Amino acid sequence: MSLRFRKEIQALSWEFPLIHAVVGILVNTVGEVLIAQRPPSKPYAGYWEFPGGKVEPGEEPFSALRRELKEELAIDVLAAYPWQQCKHAYPDKVVFLDVWKISQYQGQPCGLEGQEVRWVLPMEITSFRILEGNFQLVKQLIAAGLVEG
Asked: For all residues of the chain together, what is the average pLDDT?
């Protein structure tokens, strides 16, 4: 985590709980990215997001990414690299996202928690009801054209 983000997050976390989460960007052979719809049992049900979840205390982000995508999508992440870090303040919490691009995985992604998953082109994502904390990632994916890395 960069020093700048750490200082900003420390300032925000005095007012709100801080949630550290990992996000996985999966891209298929035709350039589509995987998004998942939050199930009815979770906050912000019905919103779409990139798969991932909370980092447990003492857990390394890559380990959390592997665990979360196994639990949510039934895939084994074999290789991934950090793409970026960002934060988003919700009314009741601040979420710090470690965003990873998945470069190799095994398995066929499916919604193990009852969530719908879809492969979509980055420019199509804006037609979905995207979770606020993921929306800035969508804009950056479109701008990047998924070519840098």
From this structure: 87
